[in-house]
Amino acid sequence: MPRIKMVEESDATGSLAELYAQGKARSVAKVVPDILRTMSLRPDFLAAVNQASTLHFTDGALTRAQHEMIASYVSALNKCRY
């Protein structure tokens, strides 16, 4: 049982449902990642995180693949499944 209260995808309405749909569309596994669901009680905050994530993973000095590789490496170092 999670310690953080989260709105399930099936219970999401309005802007939260839209944010979940966006997160699901970006997910390789086509699921709403738990890290996003932890912010479900604050859709305004989730929207800001989504916007920052979009900027972060947009090709610039590094490609998206390079961003993902660095994120994966750091997660492995921290023993974090994300």
Total helix count?
A: 4
Q: C-alpha Rg, in Å? A: 14 Å
* Share of β-strand residues: under 5%
Report mean pLDDT, rounded to a whole number.
88
Anisotropy-based shape: globular
Tell me the structural class. Answer: mainly alpha
Taking the sheet with the most strands, its summary is: none
Order of helices and strands, N to C?
HHHH
Compute the number of structural domains: 1
Which SSEs are present, and which pair or pack?
Blueprint: H1 14-26, H2 34-37, H3 43-56, H4 64-77
Structure write-up:
It is a single chain. This protein is mostly helical. It has one domain (9-77). It has helices at residues 14-26, 34-37, 43-56, 64-77. α1 (14-26) runs parallel beside α3 (43-56). The longest helix has 14 residues, at 43-56. The chain is globular, with a radius of gyration of 14 Å. The relative contact order is 0.12. The mean pLDDT is 88.
Concise overview:
The protein is mostly helical and 82 residues long. It has helices spanning 14-26, 34-37, 43-56, 64-77. The protein has one domain (9-77).
What key phrases describe this protein's structure?
single chain; 82 residues; globular
